[in-house]
Specification:
Elements lengths: L5 E4 L5 H7 L4 E4 L17 H11 L3 E5 L11 H20 L5 E4 L9 H13 L7 E4 L12 H14 L5 E6 H7 L6 H9 L4 E3 L2 E2 L10 E2 L8 H11 L3 E3 L4 H17 L1
Helix pairs in contact: 4-5, 5-7, 8-9
Length: about 270
């Protein structure tokens, strides 16, 4: 476990420096406005090639998180079609900076829609994209009509994808806060996920400010929220995948979370 890459979600202006400040082995960041529809932008001085070179020199792995507004599952054409375009743009930009993968939320369908429509829209998304790097679908915290909140729904999504898509570059990102908020027990969660997806490519190791099953996506520093820190360490150990803390309180808070995980894994 000493070889496991552990890092943080950091500011996009200089993700390399931010990661080094936290003694992190990887950096996750946005490319542009996470709440907007404009195309991606590389804010690092010197652009994509400079960021790629700086990360390589620092021996850091990079991951890009796509904007929160993306929802390729919905039946609303005014959201779904721009979402596909924006997802493709961010995948290309992430590949240009040398990112290992692009993370995207599972999205949701409208209240009156059959979830099968959302699964079909995900299939069509991947059928129409050339995946330059892996795209990792992340489980989400809330929403009765979400594609990846509950694991029974996730299982149905994965069945549809596996039937018709090339799954070599379709992966999964497990968020501990989201699972807790969605009402999924962390005990044994890695085995349950792998029974569905066959893989965990990235772990978002986050505590939760809210109770089990709350549906609230509010992260806390490890040990400061409602999840036992040992349970989060156990998930990380079982998954054996790179780890990102998406926790508050800047350098100090995230560096402490990274150190807690490393200490827990070494113990």
């Amino acid at each position: 476990m000493s070889e496991l890459r552990i890092g943080a979600h950091v500011d996009q202006e200089d993700p390399v420096a931010a990661a080094l400040d936290r003694k992190a082995g990887l950096a996750q960041f946005f490319l542009g406005d996470p709440q907007g529809w404009k195309g991606p932008e590389v804010r690092y001085a010197g652009g994509a090639e400079a960021l790629k070179a700086a990360a390589a020199a620092a021996q850091l792995d990079l991951y890009v998180h796509s904007p929160y507004v993306i929802n390729v599952a919905t039946s609303n054409n005014r959201i779904r079609i721009p979402s596909r375009k924006l997802l493709t743009q961010h995948m290309t930009a992430a590949a240009e900076v040398g990112a290992k993968a692009l993370v995207v939320h599972g999205g949701h369908v409208l209240k009156a829609d059959d979830p099968e429509l959302g699964f079909e829209n995900w299939v069509k998304t991947f059928e129409r994209m050339e995946l330059q790097i892996p795209v990792l679908i992340e489980n989400t915290a809330g929403g009765d009509n979400a594609m990846a909140r509950t694991f029974d729904r996730l299982g149905r999504l994965w069945e549809r994808l596996a039937d018709r898509c090339d799954m070599d570059r379709v992966g999964f990102c497990l968020d501990t806060c989201h699972a807790h908020a969605a009402g999924e027990e962390l005990l044994g969660i890695v085995d349950r996920v792998k029974a569905i997806t066959g893989r965990i490519d990235l772990v978002h190791a986050n505590d939760s400010r809210d109770d089990f099953g709350s549906g609230a996506d509010r992260h806390a520093n490890l040990g400061a929220g409602r999840i036992d820190a040992e349970a989060i360490v156990a998930v990380v150990a079982a998954a054996g995948a790179p780890v990102v803390v998406e926790t508050p309180n800047g350098v100090e808070g995230q560096a402490a979370d990274i150190e807690l995980l490393r200490g827990g894994l070494a113990g």
